[in-house]
Amino acid sequence: MKDPSKSPLGKPTSAKSPLGTVPMSQLLQIPEKQLTVEVKDYLPDLETLTPVQGAIKIHHKGTFLEVSAQATAIVTLVCDRCLAQYNHRIALETTEILWLEEPEDLDNADWVEREIETEDLIERISPTGSLDLTQWLYEQLCLAIPPQKLCDTSCDGIAVADEPEVTNEPVVDHRWAALAQLKQQMSS
Ligand SMILES: [Zn+2]
């Protein structure tokens, strides 16, 4: 296996990770401690009609990593209502904070407290580890797929054959309508 730390930053390290990985140690050596990686790739686990296009920006801020991305991709989804396939354009624009913490630190009380304080900021990465850009972007794109999939907001669902409208009112032949009215008057 190739040593990922020997590969250039943000360059493909394997077919599984076409965007490559960014070792924290190397990110710290860059004067601005930040890196922008252009993206124009198909991701291994995400089926898209077009390559994912955009950019990922990684900024080492001492105790945490700020990762932001702008990316677009077209995916084929199945409509929840009519089950037809349709194409959906994902327009991703996100920023995520990853705490730089060793996994063994996670059990101590300090961490638990912080997790409660910051609520959603629970993502973390080892200060001596690497960020797998492909995996990270894949997760972000998955989160960007709408939970309710509709081919159109006015989708009527599965088309059914025309049937006579069902109403709760009794069907009265118009020729007997007058009689029915008379009966109603007599009984009241
Ligand atoms: Zn539909």
Ranges with pLDDT <50 over ≥5 residues? 1-7
What's the number of domains? Answer: 1
Give helix % range: 10-25%
How many DSSP E strands?
7
Overall pLDDT score: 82
Gyration radius, in Å: 29 Å
Order of helices and strands: EHEEEEHEEHH
User: What can be said about the biggest beta sheet?
Assistant: 5 strands, mixed
Widest beta sheet: strand line-up: 2-3-4-5-6
User: Which ions and ligands are bound to the chains?
Assistant: zinc ion
- β-strand amount: 25-35%
| Secondary structural class | alpha+beta
Number of helices: 4
Mass-distribution shape: elongated
Terminus-to-terminus distance: 92 Å
Provide a quick synopsis of the model:
The chain is an alpha+beta fold and 188 residues long.
Give a quick set of tags describing it.
binds zinc ion; 4 helices; alpha+beta; disordered N terminus; five-stranded mixed beta sheet
Can you walk through the features of this model?
The chain has one domain. Helices cover 21% and strands 30% of the residues. The protein is built from four helices and seven strands; from the N terminus they run βαββββαββαα. The strands form two sheets. It has a five-stranded mixed sheet with strand order 2-3-4-5-6. Strands 1-7 form a two-stranded antiparallel sheet. It is elongated, with a radius of gyration of 29 Å.
Topology overview:
Blueprint: E1 21-23, H1 24-29, E2 34-41, E3 52-60, E4 64-78, E5 85-100, H2 109-118, E6 124-125, E7 130-132, H3 133-144, H4 177-187
Parallel strand pairs: 5-6
Antiparallel strand pairs: 1-7, 2-3, 3-4, 4-5
The structure holds zinc ion.
